[in-house]
Amino acid sequence: MTKDSKNKSIDWLKGVLSKQNQYEASINVQHISSEGADDHLIEEAIAIESNTQKQPFSKDNQDKVSLDLIISLENMLNDRQLTIFKNKDLEDQLYTANEMISRLKHDQMKKDQIIQEKNKEISVVEGKLTKKQMSYDQLIEDYKEYQNNSNNEFEKMTNQLEKEVQKYNKLNDISTKTQYQNMIKIKDLEEKIRDLEIENQKYVEQYHKILDEKNELMKTINDFTERMSFSFSTKPATSVTVPE
User: Fold this and answer.
1) Tens digits of residue pLDDT in 162-186
2) For 199, which of 16, 25, 161, 216 is 20 to 30 Å away at the CA?
3) What values do phi and psi take at 80, rounded to 5?
4) Minimal CA–CA distance to 92: which of 45, 139, 40, 58?
5) Distance of CA 79 to CAs 20, 73, 167, Å?
6) What predicted TM-score, i.e. pTM, was given to this entire model?
7) Which of the 8 DSSP states describes residue 54?
């Protein structure tokens, strides 16, 4: 590589590094000032920026060996400065990443706390739901038992009702037969009563007839008795008056 090309590449690298250094220094200044760092750090960043713009050695009136050494030293210094800036950039990135990680950890802690609280609430709700489910299951079991008991009682009542209906039908048949027999007996008794009334009427008539005949007979007997007593009373009188 020729001396001019080395000088051009070095000048180009210096320009790039100068621009990069200016950009990095401005970012560092803004970052440090925004974070509330000490004034010493700000001054150090500004000093680094100003030092990058200065030439460490003059290339005028130098021989080839000295010029090569100066160029090599400048390259080494530029590489060192670039490495420093890269390290600072990486440190800034690391700092930003650490801050982001801290924020994420803080957010994660808040979320974990919220999750724990929600888990507690969920546990309480699950406990209530478990109790309600147990109550519901118990109600289902009670309802099933009640339904079975009701079905059994209904079957018993149905069977008992059928028996009672059968008994009622039998009793109704017996009652119907009894009523029919009683009706027949009543008719027979009424017929007998009518016959007896007729016979009684005949007996009453006979009694009255006999009574009339008896009265007539008694009257005749009384008349006869009176006549006989009168005749007996007249005969002794005639016997006294008539001489022997």
Assistant:
1) 999 999 998 899 989 988 998 998 9
2) 216
3) -65, -45
4) 45
5) 13, 10, 122
6) 0.35
7) S
Residues with Cβ within 8 Å of residue 1, at least 6 apart in sequence: 9
Largest CA distance in the chain: 252
Cα gap 111→19, rounded to integer Å:
44
- Enclosing H/E stretch for 62: none
| Cα 88 to Cα 120: distance, rounded to the nearest angstrom | 46
Orientation angle between helical segments 64-241 and 3-35, nearest 10 degrees: 40
Q: Are 54 and 21 spatial neighbours (Cβ–Cβ below 8 Å)? A: no
Q: Which residues contact 9 (CB under 8 A, 6 or more apart)?
A: 1
Of 69, 53, 71, the C-alpha closest to 7 is 71
Q: Chain-wide mean pLDDT for the chain? A: 77
pLDDT of amino acid 21: 52
Count of alpha carbons within 13 Å of 131, Cβ hemisphere only?
5
State the CB neighbour count (10 A cutoff) for residue 48: 17
| Cβ(96)–Cβ(30) below 8 Å | no
Here the tokens at position 162 are 């059928």
| Alpha carbons 18 and 29: distance in angstroms, whole number | 16
**Torsion, Cα of 77, 82, 87, 90 (10° steps):** 180
